[in-house]
Inverse folding.
């Protein structure tokens, strides 16, 4: 697996500098892209309210989390 550089946030958590962008993603496709990305090692998904795709992104993340592919920590 490739090692991706990270940056440390003010909170102390780290975030990978390489992520999947979801801006201008087509409805019905963005969820598939998010699932594929997570299953292939991405841990940074860029999304914003203005993109208006947060429901589909969230549903895709929920499916991946339910499959126990990645551990969810809060």
């Amino acid at each position: 697996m490739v090692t991706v550089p990270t940056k440390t946030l003010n909170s102390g958590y780290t975030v990978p500098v390489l992520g999947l962008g979801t801006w201008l993603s087509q409805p019905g496709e963005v969820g598939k892209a998010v699932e594929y990305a997570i299953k292939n090692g991405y841990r940074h998904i860029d999304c914003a309210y203005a993109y208006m795709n947060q429901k589909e992104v969230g549903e895709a993340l929920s499916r991946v989390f339910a499959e126990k592919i990645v551990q969810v920590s809060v």
Notes: The chain has two helices and four strands. Residues 54-66 form the longest helix (13 residues). The CA atoms of residues 8 and 14 lie 4 Å apart.
